[in-house]
Amino acid sequence: MKGINFRLDDSGIFLNLVINPSDVAPNIDTKSLINCFNNSDYSNLYLSEENVINAADSLTKARKEGSYETITEVIAEKKDAKVKFRIEDNDMYGFITITAAYGGHSPTATELVKLANDSGVVRGLSKKVIDDIATQAKSAKPGSIIEALVAKGLPVKNGKDSKLKPLVPNALERILKPQTSGSSRVDMRNLGDVICVKANSEVLRRIAPTKGRSGFNVKGGIIAPKVGAWIKFKPGDGIKSSDHDENLFIAAITGMPKFQNGKMWVDDTFICKGVNVGTGNIKYDGAVLVNGDVTEKMEITASGDVTINGFVESATIKAGGDIIITEGAMGKVNEHSTEYSTRLIAEGSVHVQHGQGLNVQCSGNVTIGRQLAYSKINCGGSVTIGPIDKPNGNLFACDIQCKGAITAGTLGAVSGSHLNIDFSQGFNNLLERKDTVEELLLQLRDNNLRHRGKFELMRSKKIHPDLQRKFKEAEEMFKNESQLLEWLETKCEKMKQAKDSYQEGIKIIANKRLYAGVVVKLNNRTWRAEREYAKAKVHYAGHQWNYEPII
Can you tell me the distance from the alpha carbon of 399 to that of 22, in angstroms, rounded to the nearest whole number? Predict the structure, then answer.
């Protein structure tokens, strides 16, 4: 612009604004001067608007006084990029903040690494991030701020406690995992040899705890891991420690092994070729293995697992463990569906290859190999019809109460026969426990708050020496009360999470088709299938049942 020039001083750092009052236009003001700077080759320098205002004021004054003396004012300067490092989260993370240069020097990746080291960030630096930051800062708008995480410490990996590794599978695991036939095919009829170990067979190994892995922070400090602990393990009935290896356990008797909830034992096993009027009913303190059928009106009662390699008809089976029927089970149902001639009652889970007319009660899961119809189920877990990896069996004309997902190929039938599924019982039990815990928590919280106030009052006063012992005893009781309160707070939070998890877990899934007549219930929230659906999922969310097609 005429009469206005920009010139770097001898140091090459500061920019002078040179104004010739006799040549500049009469309308030149502060805004015009700033626009002139922004359009110049020096627009990337750091501008001092205050100094521009001073130059404009000097120009105005010169005009008033009629002075034509050249006005020179330093209005801008080159500034190098500013680099700052900060360390956070117990020295585990290093962050960089760069204020982009105003025409000055922008640091290279090598210089950034050195600056990081000088700031205490010596380990965990990402070369890629540093390179990217250096490139980004070089082309960034002057004065813009760039932030990034450039260094990470290595978190310590604490050692794992000793763990138990069963050397033989449970009978139910064997049933649910059919044996491979040939190179790729799975033979659903071949369920492998019955797991019945001989005395002195190896059944369990205790894996030693690990030492863990050291970590480090970005300052270079080493974080030592916590070594895993040896978890005490008491051998269950029927197993003992090996004479030559204290971490190896062997069967003390011939029987059926069972590993559950971190415990292992071997049940003394009663083996027979069938249960009928010739053999009589079976009542055994241990596991029962029947290599044959169980005929009408017979009863089997066992404290362990009951495995039947055959067919069950109109019989009663009670087990302290799992009930496994490798073929089918069938029973008769009265007109009002209140009495069933075949009853399967287990403390564990129940598996039947196919069933009809059954009354199943168990604490665990129910798995059906192919089809279940005209039956009643009350279980503490899930219900799966078909292979575990891809359930494709049929479920219809049943009344089910359970606490987990129901998965099958087909739910309901073309005839529209009922299939009633109720998740209310488990949910209500959970709510009852949650309400009880919350009630105790409120009461204890109120008591603890009152006691805390009393103790604060007593501590503010002088306590007679004769009462010091009693005061300390009272303090110890208050400490125990506070610990109980903390435990209840945690318990209450877990109960809330359990409630949420329950609602997330209840659902029905039809991998092939879902027919009309299927009813799903959670207390007063009910969903009814009024028509036929293709692959579908019905799940509970937002206090209501939601239908969702499976694509």
Answer: 102
CA 263 to chain centre: 25
Cα–Cα distance, 369 to 389 (Å, whole number): 12
Distance CA 348, CA 318 (A): 10
Nearest to 42 by CA among 28, 52, 27: 52
Beta-carbon contacts of residue 133 (< 8 Å; ≥ 6 apart):
96, 98, 109, 112, 146, 148, 150
Amino acid at 431: L
Are the C-beta atoms of residues 103 and 47 closer than 8 Å to each other?
no
Q: Which residues lie below 8 Å from residue 44, measured CB to CB, with a gap of 6+?
A: 102, 103, 142
Q: CB 184: neighbour CB atoms within 10 A?
A: 6
Q: What is the DSSP letter of 547?
A: E
Per-residue tens of pLDDT for the chain, all 551 residues: 788 899 999 888 999 999 888 888 888 888 889 999 999 989 999 999 999 999 888 888 888 888 888 889 999 999 999 999 999 999 999 999 999 999 999 999 999 999 999 999 999 999 999 999 999 999 999 999 999 999 999 999 999 999 999 988 887 877 777 555 454 444 444 444 456 788 888 999 999 999 999 999 999 999 999 999 998 888 888 999 998 998 999 999 888 888 888 888 888 888 899 999 988 999 999 899 999 999 999 999 999 999 999 999 999 999 999 999 999 999 999 888 789 999 999 999 999 999 999 999 999 999 999 999 999 999 999 999 999 888 999 999 999 999 999 999 999 998 878 999 999 999 999 999 999 999 999 999 999 898 888 888 888 888 888 888 888 888 889 889 999 999 999 999 999 999 999 999 999 999 999 999 999 999 999 999 999 999 999 999 989 999 999 88
Could you give the 3-state DSSP secondary structure of residue 107? coil
Say how many residues make up the chain. Answer: 551
Give residue 139's identity as a one-letter amino acid code: S
β-strands 383-385, 406-411: how paired?
Answer: parallel
Model's pTM, two decimal places? 0.68
CA distance 476 to 135: 62
Amino acid sitting at position 481: E
